[in-house]
Design a protein that fits this description.
It is globular and about 55 Å long. Helix content is 36%, strand content 13%. The strands form two sheets. An eight-stranded parallel β-sheet has the order 9-8-7-6-5-4-3-10. The chain has a two-stranded antiparallel sheet with strand order 1-2. α2 (76-88) runs parallel beside α3 (113-126) and α9 packs parallel to α10 (285-315). The relative contact order is 0.15. It has ten helices and ten strands. The structure holds phosphoenolpyruvate and manganese (II) ion. Residues 71, 241, 267, 277-278 line the site of manganese (II) ion.
Length: 319
């Protein structure tokens, strides 16, 4: 238990709930008015959903895709061991920052190109695709040479010159929500990217800043069904940066599955206590394996209920 939670009372709530499905919320007229101006990324009645293709993977195509790895690439042994461990537990994409935007200017800033080379080596060894962050326009070209997905972090969501530089980078973009950004502002940034020529965008809810201090940020779980309703883009959840506390990750990951997230971005480290960044919110290999096993019944249930719902609607002639 994290020290911040000591003294909390424990109780159990049992609620009868409707069968869970991935059915999106219905479009509210308010949202229509609010988001339809972002015409390249907003959902229209006629349009289909965007499926982002990354190597042999489809994000937003029905499979729940887990991206996992350390906050930062620290050494060859660290990234290669992590890649093997997360691949063995069912992750499909390896995350790891080579260029780190840190809150403190004196904190570890990442290994730069050396980090990118290590990520490439990890891909060669495991077949995992690579997602890594880009913080500056000048680095777009070199990062696109090594990465399969370009991550735009919370601090860069409104860096429009970076977004424009990613327009023709030839790689999909994982666009994280700014820590104080509204859903409308996230949609606006996605529109800037799409307008710059890049339609392959994955939106990421990673927690927003609120008055709450028990967690690092507040996971805005409602943002997932809102985004899935107002946009045709895939949406994933980062429970690590939302929670800031590793023991919360399994619960937040479960929540992400049932609200219709297309996947997760999770921090995992061989020895979280010694991580150079974000150790407190990183899972050990064992904890990550457990979290993945814990998620499986929820994913199975979703698939079964989705299938049953589709059959029922078809039998009754309902669209
Ligand atoms: C990260 O993914 O390590 C990261 C820095 O995330 P965020 O931009 O959401 O803080
Ligand atoms: Mn991090």
């Amino acid at each position: 238990m994290d020290a911040a939670f000591n003294g909390a009372s424990r109780f159990r709530v049992v609620i009868a709930c409707e069968p869970v499905t991935r059915m999106a919320a219905t479009m509210d007229p308010k949202w229509n008015g609010q988001f339809s101006c972002f015409d390249l990324v907003a959902k229209t009645d006629a349009g289909s959903r965007t499926v982002v293709r990354v190597r042999d993977l489809e994000i937003g195509g029905g499979e729940f895709v887990v991206m996992a790895g350390p906050c930062a690439v620290e050494s060859e042994a660290q990234i290669l061991q992590t890649a093997e461990a997360v691949a063995g537990a069912g992750a499909r994409i390896l995350r790891g920052g080579a260029y780190k935007p840190r809150s403190s200017p004196y904190a570890f800033q990442g290994l730069g190109v050396e980090g990118l080379k290590l990520l490439r080596k990890a891909r060669e060894q495991t077949g995992l695709a690579i997602v890594t962050e880009v913080i500056s326009e000048e680095d777009v070209e070199v990062i696109a040479e090594y990465a399969d997905i370009m991550q735009v972090g919370t601090r860069s969501m409104e860096n429009y010159s970076l977004l424009k530089a990613l327009g023709d980078c030839g790689r999909p973009v994982l666009l994280k929500r700014g820590m104080t950004a509204t859903i409308e502002e996230l949609m606006r940034s996605a529109q800037v990217l799409a307008d710059a020529g890049n339609p392959d965008i994955i939106l990421c809810e990673r927690g927003i800043r609120t008055f709450e201090t028990a967690t690092r940020n507040t996971l805005d779980i409602a943002a997932v069904p809102v985004l899935k309703t107002v946009s045709h883009l895939p949406v994933i959840v980062d429970p690590s940066h939302a929670a800031g506390v590793r023991s919360l990750l399994p619960a937040l990951a479960r929540a992400a599955t049932v609200v219709g997230s297309d996947g997760l971005l999770v921090e995992v480290h061989p020895c979280p206590e010694q991580a150079l960044s974000d150790g407190n919110q990183s899972l050990s290999f064992r904890e990550f394996r457990r979290m993945m096993l814990d998620l499986q019944p929820y994913l199975d249930l979703l698939q079964r209920t989705q299938h049953a719902r589709d059959q029922l609607l078809a039998a009754r002639g309902v669209d």
